[in-house]
Amino acid sequence: MDWLGMLDDHWGWLVFAALLGVGEVLLPGVFLIWVALAAAVTGLIALTLPVSVPAQLLIFALLCLLSVWGGRRWYAANPVNSQDPLLNDRTARLIGEVVLVVEAIEAGRGRVKVGDSVWSCRGPDAPAGSHVRVIGADASVLQVEPA
Length: 147
Hints:
Layout: H1 10-26, H2 32-48, H3 53-77, H4 90-93, E1 98-106, E2 109-114, E3 117-122, E4 131-138, E5 141-146
Parallel strand pairs: 3-5
Antiparallel strand pairs: 1-2, 1-4, 2-3, 4-5
Helix pairs in contact: 1-2, 2-3
């Protein structure tokens, strides 16, 4: 069966849009819905106007680009609130924690024990064995102050 032959009829686009919508529900990622929207609009255009298959494919491609671009802009302007906004920001989750200095902080640099790992840190001088509080982070280097 020639799959491009399905596109001669607007139902091919509408079925494709429905399948993409089902795919979005089963595999949520907030991406397939924008392609489904482009397929549905292409199907509606094919329903109302006599458009050739190459023109339909071009319309679909352009609508895909526009809908994905518009969706990204909309999500940037309306971010989804998370129950744990620091889930993927491990250093930000450490702010406020009291940690143990394992390598003396000298000249503003040292190492601290966080859980079962050792992190580089910056802060005022402190001897090994003392406790400091994490007040910030610069990439993977913790900023500390005396506890």
